[in-house]
Amino acid sequence: MSVISRRVAAAAVSVVLIGGAAACGPEGNDGAEGDGGAQGSAKKGGTLTVLNRQPQKQFDPARLYTSGGGNIPSLVYRTLTTRNREDGAKGTEVVPDLATDTGTPSDDAKTWTYKLKDGLKYEDGSPITAADIKYGVERSFAAELSGSAPYLRDWLIGGDTYQGPYKEKKGLDSIETPDAKTLVFKLRKSVGDFPYFATSTQFAPVPKAKDTGVKYAEHPVSSGPYRVVKNVGDGEQMVLERNTHWSEETDKERHAYPDRIEVKSGLSSAVINQRLSSGQGADAAAVTTDTNLGPAELAQVTGDKKLAGRVGTGHFGYTNYLAFNPEVKPFDDPKVREAISYAINRTSVVNAAGGSSLAEPATTFLPNQKSFGFTPYDHFPAGKTGNAAKAKELLKEAGHEDGLEITLTHSTAQDFETSPEIATAVQAALKEAGIKVKLEGLEINDYDEKTHSLDKQPGLFLAHWGADWPSGGPFLAPIFDGRQIVKEGAGNYNASRLDDSKVNDEIDAINKVTDHGAAAERWGALDRKIGEQALTVPLFHPVYKRLYGKSVKNVVISDWTGVLDVSQVAVK
């Protein structure tokens, strides 16, 4: 969100976890192997089973909202760039995929040029060309194929009015293909993070002659190590087999160990975790890309040494926080916002989110990862259990010596994020500071509509934000850039209504920086500066814990996705 995150955050990172776009890295695999597991030698062969709750409903590369190439999608679609397939922080790096490098910028990062590698082929043996990638990008503008991240509508010259190749045969002039192996993207604004977004499946090649429109997802033309041989029930059951024309010589990121991959969705979390733990039959070589262990399940697993050795731990760039709307009293008063910041008991909030194994306390808006520019700060130190005395002092200064009454809006979804458990923990902490909190619980659709609509946003509500890619830009801009305030519809994420020219100008300036490390430092400094205004109260960052089958080897979990990377897994 900026955009990937806008949807990802609102959907509890479903895109990231199901499709594999943005999500976490290993907290630590201590070498325990269960019954042969993660550290065993990897060999080609066998069948990998993926057990999921949610079906892969969108499998057309134009409709997928994902960065890093996705998880299951990345097995079929290659993109200009991709995520580095390594554990932890190294996995937040962007690396070449179809392209020879991550792109050459010019004109203050308003122009990006890519050269394709030699020997790239589709599943039928035909060559992949620059024109195919241009066409793949253009398809994502078609109304019939909506759903992907809309950045290019804003970035590409002419993208704001382009309607896709089905209605406009001419295509986008801002994507040039001077020869079969060169692409040039012309942007309206500086985008130093363009190589990160070029990992999106919108940049997957699609041969125009084989485009079947809305039916393309049923049998897309593979550029990756696997081809789709079955896709039924709107992605509920999928079968992938080897693409014999894929070459490891041109693809150093994917290993493609299994001969066959079967995706089975529509299962409950309890069933998935039970099947993974027992590991009977085909389930011994099974993984999940969308189902975490809950607090109770984790407690059971921790007590079993073999099972504990089959838990992958990941961190995704994601922050759960309290959002203020300063247009609603008393949150227009900075002292009230500061008082609430001091009063928060992060220990109780973390416990409500499942405990310290599943959540880490947060005092910064940016996630605590270097790639985002994480800069430690705690402007309103509440300690581990809240600073009620300081909160009362500020309330007195604000004219609320006898305390005050406020409403906290949350969802009724049992997601351990915006749910009643978290709201109740906040309520109890604020009570200690003399703040009486009325809880307003809304069904998830009503919650999303109310908290994301400018004219309906409550004064105080539980919120969350996930990363479109591992950078500070898509994390800070949608929440604090005044030009991204959305006045109509349910798409406003800048609840604080912050529209500060200095903040906006700094965002523009950082976007010109193509050195990711240098940009990260500036994002961190900007986060620290904005944090002084107490426009949000960071609460915690989630930790993902997921079981995998006892025959699964070569487990890789990066800080880009936070979940097991199926392109690295072996089952023999």
Task: Write a structural description.
The N terminus is likely disordered. It is globular, with a radius of gyration of 23 Å. The chain contains 16 helices and 19 strands. Helix 9 runs antiparallel to helix 11, helix 10 packs antiparallel against helix 12 and helix 15 packs antiparallel against helix 16. Helices cover 24% and strands 17% of the residues. The two termini are 38 Å apart. By secondary structure, it is of the alpha+beta class. InterPro entries: Peptide/Ni-bd, SBP_5, SBP_5_dom. This is Peptide/nickel transport system substrate-binding protein. Keywords: Signal. Pfam families: SBP_bac_5.
Pick out its properties.
single chain, 572 residues, alpha+beta, five-stranded mixed sheet, four-stranded antiparallel sheet, 16 helices, 17% strand, disordered N terminus
* Portion in strands: 15-25%
Estimated structural class: alpha+beta
The profile of the biggest β sheet is: 5 strands, mixed
Q: Spatial order of the strands in the main sheet?
A: 8-9-10-1-11
Radius of gyration: 23 Å
Mean pLDDT, all residues: 92
Protein name: Peptide/nickel transport system substrate-binding protein
Pfam families: SBP_bac_5 (PF00496)
Keywords: Signal
Organism: Streptomyces syringium
